[in-house]
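Budget justification note: compute hours in this period were largely spent on complex prediction jobs such as the one shown. Inputs:
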Amino acid sequence: MTRHTGDDGDEASGSDGTERHGDARDERHGDTADERHSDTADERHSDTADGTRSRPGVPDLGRDERPAIFVPDDDEPEAEATGSGDGGASDPRTATDGGVESATGGSDSTDLDPDAYDPIDVFPEGDLDLRDGADSCYKCTSCDTSCPVAEVDDEFPGPKFQGPEQWRLKRKDDHDIDESITSCSNCMRCDDACPSSVPLSQMHNEARGQFVEAQMEKLSVEYVRNRILANYRTSAQLASMVPRLSSFAMNFGPARWAMDKVLGIPREREFPEFATQTFREWWRDRGGAQVENPDKRVAYFHGCYSNYNTPEVGKAMVRVYEHFGYEVMVPPQKCSGTPMFANGMLKDARRHAETNVENLVAAIGDGADVIASCTSCSMSLRQEYPELFDIHGIEDLSEHTFEALEYLRIHEDLDGALAESGGPDDEREFAYHAPCHARNQGLARQAVETFRDVDGVKLEDVGDSCSGISGTYGWKSEKYDKSMQIGEEMFEHMEHAEGDVGMTECPTCAMQMEHGTGYEIEHPLQLLEETVVA
Amino acid sequence: MDDQVDVVVVGGGSTGCGVIRDLARRGLDAVLVEKGNLTHGTTGRMHGLLHSGGRYAVSDQKSARECIEENRVLRDIAGHCVEETGGMFVKRPEDSEEYFQEKLEGCRACDIPAEVIDGEEARQREPYLARDVEKAIVVPDGAVDPFRLCVANAVDAREHGARVETHAAVTDVLVEDGEVVGVEIEHDSGPGKRVHREPGTTEEIYARYVVNATGAWAGQIGEMAGVDVEVRPSKGVMTVMNTRQVDTVINRCRPKGDADIVVPHETACILGTTDEEVDDPEDYPEEEWEVDLMIETLSELVPALKDARTLRSFWGVRPLYEPPGTGTDDPTDITRDYFLLDHAVRDDLPGMTSIVGGKLTTYRMMAESITDHVCEKLDHDADCDTADVPLPGSEDFSVLRDYMEEFGIRSPIGRRSAQRLGSRTDDVLSGTDPNPVVCECEGVTRAEVRNAIDEAGSDLNAVRIRTRASMGNCQGGFCTHRIASELAREYPGPVVRDAEDELYQERWKGQRHALWGRQLSQAMLNHLLHATTMNRDGDPATTDADVDFGAFDAGPDPATEPASGSGSDDSPAGATATDGGLDATGDPGATAGPDATDGGTDGDR
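Corresponding output:
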């Protein structure tokens, strides 16, 4: 098996497992050595003909890793370690994505059927042409009426304008995207609302990226602030080196006043505390996976927040999954990109995505499915990655990514396990909020459904409103009031709910819930740990 | 005849508008009469190609040379109507190499700048081109908006003293003593601006000379004067795509054939076309196979067209003419050149000349030559300056300003408005505050709509051609009522409703040919919104029907219901409101009176 341990930078690889098992996974990763080299998902991740495990997607190092101004990135050790690793890079097929036909054709796959190619990503500069997406819009305005920002911000013209209308009005050389695109919080509710599958969030992401790239002053306070917010991982990593000091300093009154004035980070908000031991440190210290099972493997995408701020969520994930007999892998990883998309920092997002895709695709090659405990992370890997980037294996990653609770509900008898557990020791009552990004993945009801029949647990859904923070949106001074206005409905419903502990899958929703109500917030995995594992 | 004018021009297409501008600028007293809106006939039904001449560089080099010459002129004088897209003649593997070379040599022989690029380069410029396109000749084709072009000509003519009457059909050509002396017209409403439900009048306009610029309809006017004009109308279909698959004009490089051009036009692409002779320019079949042919054949050049959304299709009728006795069978072989038919010489009927044939790109040149001809007849000595003086809207044309900041509109809206309005942008956009977007698809604001209403009366199709409002992907579903409500400030309810219906019907006419896939869904949503939500299919206000309000439940009986306060109020209030609506609009003539008088002096454009 392959065991990933240590902090992001370290990756130690054991022997490769060769056995396969499991129903669905069997078919997905069955031995396809005899099949022709096609671009199907299966083939790229399977054993090579001589029986040794290939390491698909594992790295051609240093590609596109020019450090950006505010991103003193930390990938060097990891990159070296992987590169000098077990020969993954020696397989020519896996070295780069250039060697294999990309899933979407890519810009230089000239031999494709002229009728079948996807023209969206053929523009040489890497910009997407999404005018075509306007074809699906009937102007029905469902997106606008479901937009939480448009509801409180009269200046925001809404997703229909930002998406299909603005794209349709574009000519090839036009580069002026309306500034209002920066007011979209990227909650992606419009995607969910659209009856006609207009790729709204993709349009918004691309337009926002083009706006930031071409029109935003790179030395402006707004850009710098957004860049810092988008690259939370970088700040969090630095802060985590001295967690106690950071937690104090970040919330130190005069410092917050200065941040508000200078950077536009609202002083009303409290910075989350940094854990004294990150998830990855804990994982390394415990010696990595405690369960080895080549038949049931998951690769955990913990994301930044579970690593630096709430390692208890990550620990709960590991313990619950190990309880069900899974071998947990923790591959090297960076930010999922969600805050970067929301701030139009597509280059940053792409750089991080390359690392994530390479390592997670390798894990998929080892028989794992990818599990995230943050619904925005899983959303990003599933939807935004393939919509915005053309990286080898990105479609496979999309198909193999699941949210942590969702995956257990698919593959395990959670109801049975919960019934057997007899519930938590003490009665627990929660006010549960489903994050917008969970809603988009069809997961809005999963926590309520999981726990509704469990003795001693009362979970009350506080409704379908948006929490209002939308990642970094609520972390901007000029958006703070609107963020709180959007959250008002949720706060009220939380107050009315019987429980006085909040629950949600999303770390920033959790911040907002705590900020608005003072409640302590838990992740469903923590309750699952408390009931099933205990 | 005290009220005799110098010239009457019949026909408000590109030729007629060009002629009236030229006549007026040369100091002649002229009237333009058009039976519909400006561009109502063939001009409004073309694909908007500003020819480089490349299309005629092999078959008709005289026309090709005229095209490139006028192409350059229009870029100068009509910048706000022209988009300099550039064009390509692309060669697929099955297309003849010999013809490709002929085309290239032809372009060079006609002084049309032409450059050959390979398939790779062509796809760099136009990524949606088919991957087996081998190479292309790049030529300075462009896109031109025929609506704005004609309106700008008419505006300039009016500023120089001409009178422009639309919705004024010629009912007779007046012939006295063997000479044409004028025309009799029937005003649909007016004279002056068109206002629905205003009674029409008949008017005789005496003139020293009559120009028949009715294109495919020239034979009908000729008949009224008792002469034969053998126009051979030939229909062609054009299909409008929802988005721009290409940003340059794409021509197929082969001798001739149907469906060989894609023209980027404003927010859309227009596919063209066919060439088939018809008997009557107003009555010919519009057939489904013609639309299918466009999409299928042009998908060979741009595969994305196959799955892309089609908004509508329309047919235009070319005013082809050939001198008697030429006897060409195939309409595609008939020359695209234009002809002046002086009926004094030809039919011994002085006082009238017909102009037939030609194409939009050379409209100004045609206008110049017929104006020269008229001036000669009238012994009027004046030079033509239409090639040098910019049209209204194209003076000091610059779109590089930040209209969003200045007028508080979103940047893409500001950009599109400025592209349409040119140098009129400031005047038009600064007048209206607040200035919401009325047509979302095309980014048309209230200010632009009101400005067009000021010019066009209650005719919303005239507003449409000036602004593009309702020409986007909802085809009026979400904006006809908004546009109509701008009318309601000046006009009574019935006029507004008629105008709204007329625009909605016009939008439907073209959509009928796109009822599959996504446009079918759009059309159904439009229908449900208008028929159900707005009750426009059975609104008593529009049907003039008597409504038996007594048959409705009057609500709870105040006598028997204890909590009857609201009940007793409800029933009379409801009835009053509905009746009131009818009453208030019962006498449209009175309300519209002042406007009509204004219109009379103003002229309807």
